[in-house]
């Protein structure tokens, strides 16, 4: 059985996965780039980047993934569905290289991008979306790409096998929280924390009995 | 100038410093002992305990402290002020061994305990309470003992020089949050995270230019 995985999902020390005030020019609202600077500084993002613990965690984003599911808020700013030309926030060659299923009430025809990414738009529950993504993933794993609301919904539905979150030492104060309504989640997972010299802490959740990720 | 310090303040991964449903038999509500098991397992708490990173952080609770300030919710369960015999949750010899200033709207005469702890009851703002505690601390540092609301109030007032929090890998889901309303707190502190083999992560805040703690 292919696994359902979350990678590189960054949150502030106070638990926000995105800031307040998301717009076309501020994909993460008032958080800006601050939740992801740890990743930009690694070889996962740039050739001259660091190769330590932040890098080895970051690169796990890719291997073995056959499809991604993302929320409408990751695909674009509030209101993107009113722009027929909107093709996501990543330019002509998005960094997914697989089918990507965008959860939205405003479905539209699929968009084929360069580099193997195709955006599909579906209005579905987490379990239904996962069934669709698994069929497209050809036996590989499915990544849940965020935002926080989508990850929370998949966690609440018991659908996540492996999750890598990154706690960044800033206090955003406002935005969308990851952890709301997940009391007792630790009972189903082995949780490990690994602090990095960069200041972030990698926290992994591995479902008890979920086996190991394919590579 | 003596410093204002927080030590061993444990929070869940979702940021709760105490659980819901605090009572005489459940000092931390539905959290039970889960926020503090990391500390009970060390030599700080028991002779046969561990002596590693959890221990060296835990023992910093004591040296150089001349007084503590705590909230009414740490001193006792909701309603303790209606019990004239209530002397705190720690037995005849509380583990403070200094003057302790309890912030409460229900003041009462001071209570002298064994081992050097005296409980004083004051109805005061954070700044006023600190002035009083500093005078009693004889040049030593003042510890802010919690709970989460009190620490948050002192942080918001800019009064904390050094803070040691411990993130425990559980999701409480409900209770009292530490971090609410503290956006941008990181600007005034050097923040370090140190993960422990026990599973907790020690997160320290050191105020820029606050000097070093006395010992």
Automatic annotation (TrEMBL), chains A, B:
It comes from the Bacteria. Residues 9-183 form the Bacterial bifunctional deaminase-reductase C-terminal domain. InterPro entries: DHFR-like_dom_sf, RibDG_C, Riboflavin_Biosynth_HTPR. This is Dihydrofolate reductase. It comes from Paeniglutamicibacter kerguelensis. The lineage of its organism: Bacteria, Bacillati, Actinomycetota, Actinomycetes, Micrococcales.
